[in-house]
Specification:
Elements: H1 3-17, H2 22-29, H3 33-45, H4 49-60, H5 72-84, H6 90-101, H7 107-114, E1 142-150, E2 153-160, E3 166-171, H8 176-189, E4 195-200, H9 209-214, E5 218-223, H10 233-247, H11 257-273
Parallel strand pairs: 1-4, 4-5
Antiparallel strand pairs: 1-2, 2-3
InterPro entries: Homeodomain-like_sf, Integrase_cat-core, RNaseH-like_sf, RNaseH_sf
Protein name: Integrase catalytic domain-containing protein
GO molecular function: nucleic acid binding
């Protein structure tokens, strides 16, 4: 127990009885004025006066405080999102809670709830060696993949970091099933069916079915380090271009996918054959043969 704090309370009460202003009491004792106000108010209303309040204050500070109980319904929501999202992280569970249930909860509390049902292990180790960030000296050497959230529509994106050739698939769900479909489309339609290395982030859309299929198209699959956008700089740059020059920052409905796909195809045509790139010497990625 911090005896000094009890002494401050006693001194605050003595000065208050001597009609010393609360602001002066706070300044003298090096505490907030609101703290002094709370002390005086509780001493005044306590049947035991100063001694009664000091006794209650001492007992309240002894031992750990009981944890607040979490609503069982909220727990079930957190667990169901975890299972639905292929063991997705706390940040994504928080996102879906706010979006679907209008519930705001901290990420540490989410992991506390998850720990009641699951064995939680860190997916990312600070000391994990991932090797150098891949660079490319020729086409098809490195392909980066990612996804962009447009409300009920998700854009799967890919870029050849050397040639800047790209591909996009609009999907109604952010799942590994759609990630695998995009892998098939992009590698067969754009990247000649093979790349030395394919890289993505650790999102749920790049797990399970995607990971089972990825080695059909590459000998090396690399997951970028979390919160290191420079490791996915090419695809992040392309994602910004998709927003600025194609789909914007709007949120879309699933029923709009067919219409939006037509817009994306027009954008890809312009991007590949007409839009100049500074890194390519002001040439577009592709030219018609």
């Amino acid at each position: 127990m911090d005896v000094n704090q009890l002494t401050k309370i006693s001194l605050a009460w003595e000065m208050y009885e001597q009609h010393v202003p609360k602001s002066h009491i706070a300044q003298t004792l090096d505490v907030q004025r609101e703290t002094v106000h709370i002390w005086i108010s509780k001493i005044t209303t306590n049947p035991g006066g100063l001694l009664g309040f000091l006794d209650e204050y001492s007992r309240a500070k002894k031992g750990p405080r009981p944890k607040r109980q979490v609503d069982p319904i909220l727990k079930r929501w957190v667990w169901s999102i975890r299972e639905r999202g292929m063991d997705c992280c706390g940040q994504k569970i928080r996102y879906f809670l706010e979006k679907e249930r209008s519930v705001s909860i901290s990420v540490p509390k989410i992991y506390e709830i998850l720990a009641e049902k699951y064995v939680i292990k860190s997916k990312w180790k600070k000391n994990t060696k991932r090797g150098a960030v891949p660079k490319a000296s020729r086409a098809r050497e490195v392909i980066q993949m990612d996804s962009v959230d447009f409300g009920e529509v998700f854009a799967f994106t890919a870029v050849d970091i050397f040639s800047r050739e790209v591909d996009i698939l609009l999907a109604p769900e952010l799942t590994s099933n759609w990630g695998a479909r995009f892998l098939d489309q992009a590698m067969n339609r754009r990247f000649d069916g093979f790349s030395d290395l394919i890289q993505s982030d650790g999102g749920p859309e790049f797990k399970d079915k995607f990971k089972k299929k990825v080695y059909k198209y590459t000998n090396r699959y690399r997951i970028s380090a979390p919160y290191k956008k420079n490791e996915q700089s090419y695809i992040e740059s392309f994602n910004r271009t998709v927003r600025k020059e194609c789909l914007g920052w709007a949120k879309y409905r699933k029923k709009q996918i067919k219409e939006l796909t037509a817009v994306v195809n027009i954008f890809l045509e312009r991007y590949h054959y007409h839009r100049p790139h500074i890194s390519l010497g002001m040439r577009p990625p592709l030219t018609r043969g």
